[in-house]
Amino acid sequence: METFNITFLRNRQIDKSILTFPVHIEPLTFVSPSAKTLYDGDCGLAVVREDTNVIIDTVKTDYSLLLHKDLIDAVESAFKINKLDFEVFDIFTGGTKGNKMFLNYAFPDNTIKIADEDYFPFMQLQNSYNKSLNARIVAGLYRKICTNGLVRYHSKNTILNVKHLGKKIDLSSISLKVNDWWEEINLTKFKLEEIVNVSIPEQFEEIEKITDRVFETKKDKEMFLQSDLIKRYFDELGSNHYALLNAYTHYITHHLATRMNDFDRVAKSYSVLENIFLN
Fold first, then answer.
1. Could you tell me which residues come within 8 angstroms of residue 72 by beta carbon, excluding any fewer than 6 positions away?
2. Who's near 33: CB < 8 A, 6+ residues apart?
3. Model confidence pLDDT, tens digit, residues 19-59
4. Structural contact between residues 21 and 50, judged by C-beta atoms closer than 8 angstroms
5. For position 49, what pLDDT does the model report?
6. Residue 150, helix vs strand vs coil
7. Domain residue ranges in the chain
8. Entry pTM
9. Is 188 left (phi over 0), alpha (psi -120 to 50) or beta?
């Protein structure tokens, strides 16, 4: 299979071994220096990396552990069942001692055309060894020329979104949901082609109103409106909803999504975009 050539990321990490180290949880035991009292398991659990015997995080007793490796294996099995050729696009770790995972897959043999531009499907896996990040699988399209990400959070493209809380996380439905997402790609393509023909009035008021809905913070609203993104995409693609959507996804992909603690805001922004442009 031809290697998928993406040049926007230099020195991107694609080695899954940085994620698949063995982990277990065990009762957290410590002695209070002041009261000289032994606390055994009452105060929570330790998440222990087995190959180094290092505690990478501590959690409450209701935490549900999902190994990065188990999530990766389940998703890649679903790809194979659905006969989808895939490759690891990039990997990011975050949090304390690498306890968060972000793994992106690309599907190199399935580039699609929208308004004479190339898009390719992608899927991102998210997981954490604490409760700060849900076990989540989201999918969407990248605009190949500049890698603007379009994630449809309010549709079948949210394949998994489960808190690390209580019972064991069920991965049994992933294969079926991957199939549903794949079948919906053509619908997304059709909707994107439709908004190419929806022009935007010269007045700036509509854009300001949409921006107020898309971004949660005043800072992001101001930074987006003060940037050259709207002009850049209008010059390139015309004064239409398709160009405006690309301006928003550019900001979300290359600015908002790069902040390690803004995942909820990213999800909300994409949800608003879907409601405005793709429903």
1. 16, 19, 20, 103, 125
2. none
3. 889 999 988 876 555 544 444 545 688 899 999 998 888 88
4. yes
5. 92
6. strand
7. 23-59, 65-192, 196-277
8. 0.78
9. alpha
